[in-house]
Write a structure and sequence with these properties.
Oligomer: single chain
Helix content: 10-25%
Radius of gyration: 20 Å
Distance between the termini: 32 Å
Shape: globular
Strand content: over 45%
Order of helices and strands: EEEHEEEEEEEEEEEEEEEEHHH
Strand order of the largest sheet: 3-4-6-8-10-12-14-16-18
Structural class: mainly beta
Amino acid sequence: MKIDTMLNYIPALTWNWLDMNRAQLKAEIDIKDNAGPSVPELPEGVTFSGVSGSPMPAATGMGKTMDQILDTAGASSCTLTVKKGIKAAVPVVLRFALENGSTSFTRQIIRAEDDSDITVIMEYTSPAAAGGFHAVQTGLYAGKNAHIHLIKVQLLGKDYTHLDDTGATCDESALIQVTQIELGAKESYAGVAADLPAYGGQFKSDTAYLCRGTQKLDMNYVVVHTGKKTNSRMQVKGTVKDTARKTYRGSIDFRRGCSGATGNEQEETLLLSPDVVNKSIPLILCDEEDVAGEHGASIGRLGEDVLFYMNTRGISRNAAEQMLSRAKVQSAAALIPDEKTVTDIHNYMEEVFLHG
């Protein structure tokens, strides 16, 4: 299977010379298998079906290109449903344990019926030196007053190509949270889109990453407000070092009729080398008067004042850089209610800093 396509389109195009309007993906894939997740243990009131049986509930961050890739590869599908009024007592955990040379193309739909609550954790792992191709697409639907917390943790080997696509939609007074941690893979593409069409719907995301060596990380986050009194908050924190390349597109789109809506996006990026390529484009689109949108970014190197403070306490520059890089990832990991997943993140980071 040969892939040469564009994905992660920004909603409003900017100058082409910035090379930020979209991402280009090129790959040659020998599909030998289709590695899926382990079958999860389910709390009471949650059902799991190995066949999706329904279309994606919302547009996704990567767009139609991802649909075409998965359809061509014959992606496997599943649906998780939380029954009305059920508050799932424990998280549902989907673990993808991939090997060297593995290929994986999967879709998941997570539906939370009215007044329900669920946390779903998806963790992708492989041996550190492994390579392969992993593509996953997740659709989220939260009914009236429902809450979904989706957690995605990427700890793949150094030669993997990873595509992670999410689309979410909220009913009245519902909340969808997405926590995403990107640490592994040679090339990683992440797209998240949230649609807020109903009164009081909310979307929150917390993203953390460490982009090092020759890694490439490309992210596209889009929230569309069409319902009144809707709210969104996106927070992205990470470190770029060595000769790594990272692109972040964060868009809040206030459509006509979403009066009283609020949106906020913040980015914190630590640059640890003059040879990195860091591209960030926070975007607010507005077609409604009675809204409040704001964005901010803190992008730069480790300050000399911070280094001096650390040095006076016996902390070297390298140790200070590691400490701050860990802190950005740990701020997102603190939101994960699963000890094994948090331990896996910690161990992965320790291995990275030990061996580079």
